[in-house]
């Protein structure tokens, strides 16, 4: 979840109560005594995968970037996506540096550094270091 405007939070994906992984983008508009959830519309050809354990950040008040995480079929993702708030569509981002195996990560943080126009990723788990434990009540 990330702050988009002074009174709007954005949430993409996550694990639902039934164990499935969502690919929906929602906004939460904060008001004085309550808040309102609203599903964000998307256009374009790219259908986002369901993701969890990913990270997100806002760039230039125009883009929501999503990086890494895991899906129902892949434990560690290396892809980056961005949502464009001017025309409401997702696109896959091609980035520079690193090998795909080194870029697969989940449970990490990401921030935008405006001076260098860079996204900085910190921490997380890589496939060779992490083992997932599932708890089913």
What does this structure look like?
With 137 residues, the protein is mainly β. The chain has a single domain (2-122), classed as Neuraminidase (6 Propeller). Helix content is 3%, strand content 42%. It has 1 helix and 10 strands; from the N terminus they run ββββββββαββ. The chain has one helix spanning 100-103, and strands at residues 2-5, 8-15, 21-30, 35-39, 55-59, 63-67, 80-84, 89-93, 109-113, 118-122. Mean pLDDT is 82; it is low at 129-137.
Q: What's the layout of helices and strands?
A:
Layout: E1 2-5, E2 8-15, E3 21-30, E4 35-39, E5 55-59, E6 63-67, E7 80-84, E8 89-93, H1 100-103, E9 109-113, E10 118-122
Antiparallel strand pairs: 1-2, 2-3, 3-4, 5-6, 6-7, 7-8, 9-10
Quick recap:
This protein is mainly beta and 137 residues long. The chain has one helix at 100-103; strands spanning 2-5, 8-15, 21-30, 35-39, 55-59, 63-67, 80-84, 89-93, 109-113, 118-122. The strands form three sheets. It has a four-stranded antiparallel β-sheet with strand order 1-2-3-4, with no helix packed on it.
CATH fold type: Neuraminidase
Residue fraction in strands = 35-45%
Q: Given the C-alpha coordinates, what overall shape results?
A: globular
| Level-1 CATH class name | Mainly Beta
Helical fraction:
under 10%
Main beta sheet strand tally, sense and closure: 4 strands, antiparallel
Order of helices and strands: EEEEEEEEHEE
How many individual domains? 1
Mean pLDDT score, rounded?
82
| Structure class | mainly beta
Count of beta strands: 10
Tally of helical segments? 1
The largest beta-sheet arranges its strands as: 1-2-3-4
Q: Give the name of the CATH superfamily.
A: Kelch-type beta propeller
Q: Which spans have pLDDT < 50 for at least 5 consecutive residues?
A: 129-137
CATH second-level architecture: 6 Propeller
Q: Span from first to last CA? A: 26 Å
Instruction: Tell me the radius of gyration.
Output: 15 Å
Organism: Saccoglossus kowalevskii
InterPro entries: Beta-prop_ATRN-MKLN-like (IPR056737), Gal_Oxase/kelch_b-propeller (IPR011043), Kelch-typ_b-propeller (IPR015915)
Pfam families: Beta-prop_ATRN-LZTR1
Keywords: Kelch repeat, Repeat
